[in-house]
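Newbie here. four chains, one complex. Structure please?
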Amino acid sequence: MTLLYLALAVFLLLTLAAGFWRVRHGPTAADRMLAAQLFGTTAAAILLLLAEALALPALRDVALVLALLAVIAVIAFTASVKTPTPDQDSGDD
Amino acid sequence: MTQPVFWALVGMALVVLALYALIVHAHLLRKVLALNVMSSGVFLVFIGLARRTPGEDVPMAADPVPQAMVLTGIVVAVAATGLALALIVRLRVLTGRTTLGDDTGD
Amino acid sequence: MAGLSLLDWALDGVLALLLLWLAWRALSTPALFRAVVLFIAFGLVLALVWARLFAVDVALAEMAIGAGVTGALLLAALVRLAPPIGRGRAHGRNGERDGA
Amino acid sequence: MMLRPRTDRQAGPASSARADKGLPPAARALLVLALLAVFAGLVLAVLSLSEPAPGLAAAVDERIDESGVSHPVTAVLLNFRGYDTLLELVVLVLAVMGAWSVGRARGCAGNVPGPLLRQLPRLMAPLMVLVAGYLLWVGAHAPGGAFQAGSLLGGVGILLCLSGYPLPGWANGPALRVSAVLGVAVFAALGVVAALLPGGAPLDWPPAQAKTLILTIELAAMLSIGVVLAALFAGGRP
């Protein structure tokens, strides 16, 4: 079972890497934003898998903290992105 | 190569990488980023090498003393970052610049 | 500690590659805003590394501070370093005036 | 005004050249060589370390029963190496003093918060305070403690700031300053009291009261860390 959890964690890490590729190449700011949001979810899943695989139940608390603070990061992100106005496109590239 | 040595090497790679960026980039915010990456690298060396002495209650856990020191270091690093950012913003307000150095300044 | 399985090494390897790549991108991307976002992601992956190294206390602190508070601090500084843009934003929320 | 740079990339050729090409190629190559030499030296140093290293884990484990808590990291932070933590709280106060002395806080972020963001603290803030309290309590016997709980409280402050939540007037007055130094004050005061006990030394908790003392200090430290982080985010004195 531990083997399966570890394998799943590696797989999720690879999807995380794929997400980073999207952040880098994503055409619009919304793409990047969505991918960044997905990191939090994936990382929480990886932490929960590691909690079982490494027999460290305290890692669930880390996932809890991540779930709460991902919100802060996203809010700070949206607050710092320019609100697009008709005359000025949100030119991220 | 054992796991502690592996992570210590990764940490040192981070330190060297960040040192390069710290020297090369002029923008002060970038320097703050580099300093943060550098401190993360130091912490990684510390925790990685601490795993050579396993803790007692959780068999695989690292030596608790380096963990406590890294914990302290993380909080000090964020306080220093906050102060540095306040100073950069002030510099920008006063001079309009975000870089140091008078030879390239405007 | 002697017999780390292949899977353990795969986990370590992918984490280390991600960490180094993110650090390099965060320090070399020309756009500062994107660099800060990459740095937040770097903090996230670093927290996973701490979890993987059985340093749960450090993982908790890194998750809260490295990925949360530092990121918010950097983004706020980025906003304050930018001058007010256009007329819609000029009502003084982050204007250049110094209230001292 | 419209064309002023937002980031160094959009800043036009002159400024981005200054940001990226400050060094001539020869100097840059020399720098890379020097850094590679540093890296090689570090690698050699690490490879020469002995693998089962003598550490302090056994020493901590030996005395953990006298520390008042059962989680070794908390025991090290609040008992065995109390000076580290005390001075770290001093560093936090110094950082916020530095930030306050360079200017006033001027709003939190660029955009005016929308209705969704304005309502978010009602949902999130109680949850985050609850989890912070949980982390503080659980720190006595499992990973967690004042730092993690305090940074969550800092997150609450950032959330309130970003969402433009109307704070009562007293929150920006003396209450803010008192809670920023509360951690240092409580820690130092209890440390001095411990020194005055018969046979005591500064920051040396008597085992019977150690748990109460540690949790009291952690409570104050958590408040201070949260307030300091939120104040640093606000970026200047209120």
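Moderator note: Chain A has one domain: 2-80. Chain A is about 75% helix and 0% strand. Thread marked as resolved.
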